[in-house]
Design brief:
The chain is α/β, with parallel strands linked by helices and 188 residues long. It is built from four helices and seven strands. The chain has a single domain, classed as Vaccinia Virus protein VP39 (Rossmann fold). GO terms for molecular function: 16S rRNA (guanine(966)-N(2))-methyltransferase activity.
Length: 188
């Protein structure tokens, strides 16, 4: 696993042993960031200078990729000790500690945000209905800007993580399904 593009391109990322953490594969991250950069609703402005949330961060691969591509700051949420160790090692190895904050706690119970974020990544364990819970908690604590892009990874066979929003993109990659929508983008 490595950083795909940007200032830290090629940097190898650590991952904890075992199956408690399921890092987003390089090819899935590549496809996701290509989509964010080239879709009509995306572009460099959705990443460059953005404040980012990486919930269920694991190794931090999604947030680190965003930072490498020009995001200004990323807040990572993770509860697993082994994953936290890998995440902190990855931040240090990429020399990005000053661009990040790590909460060793659940994204389902976030502290109040200092500033809202324009890009949100959620890659929870599959099949537990966690995206909707995490989004409700993040909205409630002021983490999500009114027009933020929200990216959620679910299992391939799972339904949409929330109802009543206009899905901008939905892509399948192996066992994963990526969903992208804009906060406040209710389906009409």
């Amino acid at each position: 696993m490595r950083i795909i593009a940007g200032s830290r391109r090629g940097r190898v990322l650590e991952a904890p042993f075992g199956s408690a953490t399921r890092p987003t594969a390089d090819r899935v991250r590549q496809a996701l960031f290509d989509m964010l950069l080239h879709a009509p609703w995306g572009g460099m402005e959705c990443i460059e200078g953005a404040r980012v949330v990486d919930g269920f961060a694991g190794t931090g691969a999604l947030g680190l990729e965003a930072l490498s591509r020009g995001a200004a700051f990323c807040t990572f949420f993770e509860v697993d000790r082994a994953a936290l160790g890998a995440l902190r090692a990855n931040l240090a190895g990429c020399r990005m500690r000053e661009m990040a904050q790590v909460f060793a706690g659940s994204v389902l119970r976030p502290k109040r945000a200092v500033a809202p974020c324009g890009l949100v990544f959620l890659d929870p364990p599959y099949g537990l209905g966690l995206p909707a819970q995490a989004l409700a908690a993040l909205f409630g604590a002021g983490w999500i800007a009114p027009d933020a892009l929200i990216v959620v990874e679910t299992g391939r066979d799972e339904e949409a993580p929330v109802e009543g929003v206009e899905i901008l993109a939905e892509r399948m990659h192996g066992a994963a399904r990526l969903w992208v929508w804009r906060a406040g983008g209710e389906a009409g």
